[in-house]
Structures are given as structure tokens and as C-alpha cells.
Hints:
- By secondary structure, this protein is an alpha/beta fold.
- 43% of the residues lie in helices and 11% in strands.
- It contains 23 helices and 16 strands.
- The strands form four sheets. The chain has a seven-stranded mixed beta sheet with strand order 8-7-6-9-10-11-14, with helices on both faces. The chain has a five-stranded parallel beta sheet with strand order 1-3-2-4-5, with helices on both faces. It has a two-stranded antiparallel sheet with strand order 12-13.
- Strand 15 and strand 16 form a beta hairpin.
- The radius of gyration is 24 Å and the shape is globular.
- It starts with a helix and ends with a helix.
Amino acid sequence: MKKGYDLIRDAFLNKGTAFTERERKELGLEGLLPPCIEDIETQKERVYRHIEKKISLIDRRKFLMDIFNHNRTLFFYLFREHFKELMPVVGDPVIAESVEQYSEQFTDPQDAVFLSIDEPDQIESILKSAADGRDIRLMVVTDSEGILDRGDWGVNGADVSVEKLMVYTAAAGIDPKCVMPVVLDCGTDNEALLGDYFYLGNHHKRVQKEQYYKFIIKFVETAEKIFPDLYIHFEDFGMSNAIEILEVYKDAFPVFSDGCQGTGLVTLAGILGAMDINKEKLTDQKYMCFGSGIRGICITDIIFKEMRAQGLSETEARKRFYIVGKDGLLFDDMEGLTPVQKPFVRKRSEFKNADELTTLEKAVMAVQPTILIGTSEQQGAFTEDIVKAMASWCEHPVIFSLSSTAEFSEAKAADIINWSHGRAMVATGAPSDPVEYNGITYDIGQLDDALVYPGIGLGAVSVKAKLITDEMLSAAAHALCGFLEIDEYGPAVLPPVEMLIQFSESVAEAVADCAVKQGENRLDTDDAAATVKENIWLPEYLKYENGEFKAVKKQESSEKTDLEKLFK
Length: 568
């Protein structure tokens, strides 16, 4: 049993000024802490007041991370209670600045694990050492090639793995002792980093192809061997590698690729929300994606699978999908088509003017889609003419711009609402203020993958899922729709991110229930919802009794009370 300063330095056990008089005496803490004894609520108020005094968001984040480094329980108690306010500080947009400054301002690894492609034989020993006897059930793993849509940031991407796990715990209640952030240092192609004396990663070009995949294989198989109940979340890999890795492991281990699946799932959830609001059927829609890169194709594939799941044959479903790239509508005779694009190309014989469909506007006019998704990052691509045209052939066109920044958005939410006379169903990748039109306030849903991944992770971990199936992912998307205010005027197609704590449990229950029905659960249970509840960790200090720290036993109704308190 740790005592004295060793105990204070343990972020999982440290209670700071909340150690009782008896605990201080028995654990060698007398005189090592200020004499005042406080509860966690008082500690939280002190920390929060200090945060409020910080002017810049990055300074707020640095202070929060200091709390995280020293007292996990207090950090998550604070984060949960002030989730709406602190989510942008912990995550996007401040996380981008933190990543850029990571090597320059490094002070603490925050339990991240760094594995080098130059030393693959050390993977097993490093993972065991990092776990230190903990039962690791969730890893967020990055190779940092595509950090936050801002490119290659090498080991600086550690901050993203840490941040994602913070959201998993705050939003879904996954025990922070059971998680591990991992960075796969495969080098970097970021010349600024390579030229920076203080850069903390490998100072060589990014390793790819055979050596890279051997490293990935060794890591995944070693991690799954050491931690048999492990769920792996792949984050911010280069999209080509992300697809390859997902294809290799989706039928072997419980894995989730945020780049390939996260944005697609939240886009699906938004479309399903629009269908519920307008009492329409997905299988009646005609889908177009402006953006023929891997991201757009991955999103499209998820929508396609949902149409199949709702009853369309593959042939029928294919007829409803159109992809537009920089050269216009994708046709099967175009040169340079990638394997992921080919399933969604069209034949020129379908159109009388196929050779003229070289722009988005011409493609829209020819196809007449009812759903238009933008992944192009081309500002202003969804013009007034396009929006008005879509509103002319369908009552409620679904128009989503997925750019993570308003600067590169295909269209502003306010413009789409105005051009469609309030009839379009709108969602954006970047946060968007409500839009006033004709006396009605239109709430704009944000296409944030945080809406889905915490609940998916909790559901998978709770029942020890063998795999993450398409059906489980679909269940997660559908579960979000239960939180829509569909009886109001101008409702958003997605619930707000600030409600994440409230609906993550429901998403988890849907995922866990689906896993059990499919026989993909390793934990035997006949009540998935109850199993999920049992796995929710709450930020409460452990009590020291009889020589060990134990969780405080809850009365039968106390868990509901605790959750309600955190939702205020």
C-alpha cells in the first residue's frame, strides 16, 4: 500500500485535501497536506473559480491538465459538472493548439504510451510496464498522420489520444484506470518538426508500406494477447492506412476507426433524425456526396449499409448513391479511380448529358438528390442556386457541410435556411449558432463524432464484445434519435454535444443489447442495460478501510441521484 508522498503522487488514489483525519494518520500523510479537510464539492469550486480567472482557453487547458495529472477523480468530477463549458477546452478547438505546442511545453506524459517503429521488439514489455497490473480494456491509438484534419504531427498527437479517453470517461463513465492512450511513433513527414531540436519524437521520415504494417500487426496482436478484453479505438491515422487497418481487424478484434466510422455514423444519425422529424423514409431518398476522397466514401458506405439494412437490395441501394469529385460526377470509365470509389461510380449511359456533368451544380441538377453531404472543404460550394433547386423538388432537403471549421464550409447554416425558406434540414461540422428565420428559431446540429464513440465504447466494454459489427454501429446511430425534440419548430437533426453525458448511456445500452442479440458478447448477461449501468464509473473518492482503498457502496437509488446532480 502506497503511503505518504507516494500516495499523493498517485493520480488514481490521490484525494488531496479530502483525505480524512483518520486516513492522514494511517497513511503517513500528517503534515504533508494543508490541515483543512474538504469534500470534493469544495475542491471542485476552488478549482473552477481559478479556471474562470484564466483569460485564454489554452491557459485554462494547461491548468485543467495539471489537475488531471495529480487527481483523476477531481478532474472528472469537475469536467462532468461543467461539461458544456469545458468540452471545448479539453477538446476541439483548444486541443489543436495544445498539439502544436506539445513538444515545446512537455511536462508530463499523462499516462500515454509511446511505441517506436524503430524498436518493435519492445512493444510487449512497454505495454506491460505501462499497465502496471491494471486491467486495460480500452485503448485510443494514434500514429498521428492525420491529426485533427491538420496533417502529420508525430508524437505531438499524444494529446489527442489522451483527450479522447477523457471524453470516454467524462461522457460515458469508463473507468480511467482501465484505459491507455497509445502513440505509434512511425516518424513524421512534418518538416517543421524534423527541423525542431526540441521535437520529442523520432527524427526521421514517416515509415510506410511493409515495415509500417508489420509494426501495426505486431502492436495489435500483442495488445490483444496481453489484454484479452481489449477494445481498440484508432484515431487520426492517415485515411488510406486507417481503411487498411480496419479491413484487416474488423472481423478479428473489437476495433473502431474514428476516421472511417465516427463521422459516418454521426452523419447517419443526422440523416435518420431528419427522417424522423419529417416522417420520411431513408429508402426513398437520393444521396449525393460532394467530396470523392476517402472520408466522403467512408461516410457514403455507412449510409449505403443502412439503406441495405432497411430493406433495399444491393442493386436498388446502389441506384440511390452519387459521388461528385473535382472533375464532376464519378463515372466508371474515369482514370485513376480508387478501389473504395468504384462501388459508387455511375455509367454514362444513365444520362443524356453525361459529358457535361463536370461540376457540382450540373450534377445536382441532373440527379436531383434529396440528401447532399459536403466533405470537399470548398468554401461556398453549396450555392444559392443549388439549395433553391433542391428545395424545388423535395419538401425538406437534407444538406450537411462536414467541414470542422466554418472557414472551409460548403455553406453557412443561415444561408441554407434562408435560401430554402426554412425547409432544409441542416447540420454542420463546425459549431453553428441558431438561425432566426420568419419568426422561427432553427437549432443547428453539430456533426461531432463525440456524439457516438463514447457510448459505443461503453457498450462494447460492458459486455466484452468480440467484434464491433455494422449492426451495433447502426444501433448507436438510431439511439441518438431518441433524444431529438421533434415536436418543436426548427428542431436540430442531432442532439447537442452538451447533452453527451445524458445520451451516451442510451447509446451504450443499444450497442450492448445488439452485441448480445448477435452473440458477440464474451460476458454472459441477459440484461444488457443493467450490465452497462454496472460498468459506469462515477468520480467519487475511494474510502480507505482495513488496509485498502474501496469504492463507496451506493444505496440502491443513489446512482440515479448522483447522475442527476451531474446533469444540472
